[in-house]
Amino acid sequence: MDTSYAIPTDRFARCIAASKRMRWDVETDVIRGRRFDRANKFLPDGLTLAGQLYFLSPDEKIYFSQVQGRTYANMFGLVERFIGAKVLELSRDHWLGDQVALEALIRFGDEELKHQALFRRIEALTSEVMPPGYRFDWDPNQIAATVLSKSSWAVLALTLHIELFTQFHYRESIRDDADLSELFQDVFMFHWKEECQHATVDELEWRRLDAGTSAEARDMAVDELIELVGAVDGIVQAQAFADDDYFAPTCGRDLSAFEADMVRQTPLEAYRFQYILSGARHPHFARTLAELTTKAQLGRVHDALTSLGAERLLAAA
Ligand SMILES: [Fe+2]
Ligand SMILES: [Fe+2]
User: Fold this and answer.
1) Other Cβ atoms within 10 Å of 136 Cβ, number
2) What pLDDT, on the 0 to 100 scale, is given for residue 227?
3) Tens digit of pLDDT for each residue in 297-307?
4) 243 CA distance to ligand 2 middle (Å)
């Protein structure tokens, strides 16, 4: 255990300054009275993997991206329930300590409440223009209870990974895709602006907790992180098939058996990339995890991630 940890107040102060500068409002900055237009994609092909469904018409590909985009917004609304609760729980450690760190965490929690409201709004707006029958049956409180039963070390690792992949998706593929809905792009532009600070706070808090964690407790936390990744994969699998159950009968034509099989497998592959692998492979996440774990522990995480790919191959066989 490293007991010499000193809270980096200046870094928390920079997060607060950026948070004040970026601050936005759901209605007056993001929505601005707009509605979704079914003519535009919600997510780029690089995230949805629509490119491998060469037999879909341009309009069918747009619809495919809208189904995945709707789930994308709902997934953030889901995970932000446990992220917000964890951040407020951690703020307790600073109540009578570093007041700058405390303010950074409180702002973070407040922003995640606003983001959940934004994603609920997006679900309402998409349901106005999309066919009935879409399902996203996860209870955010139930998921949060499962996640929050694990150690804070594991929860912060999962959270950092999520908040980094949000930024990666926006910067690398959502921001510059001219085919996307402007409203959908704006939602993720504004979200990205506040997530940058969140990822910094996640890392600082993860390192603070790590410094007070024994080798034995850390070893258990690594297993909990692997369990959490498995839980995310369980959600991803079920939602991918739920989204196919929605897309296939509402895409406007009967798909051949070959097409139907391809369409069914693609969201699972896309979601595993979106929600697990793009975060796990993010250089900043990978570096931080490597710094905080032994080679053997890191190997266990990598094996768990590799098995996701293996399952995919088995499912396709
Ligand atoms: Fe968020
Ligand atoms: Fe966040």
Assistant:
1) 16
2) 96
3) 999 999 999 88
4) 25
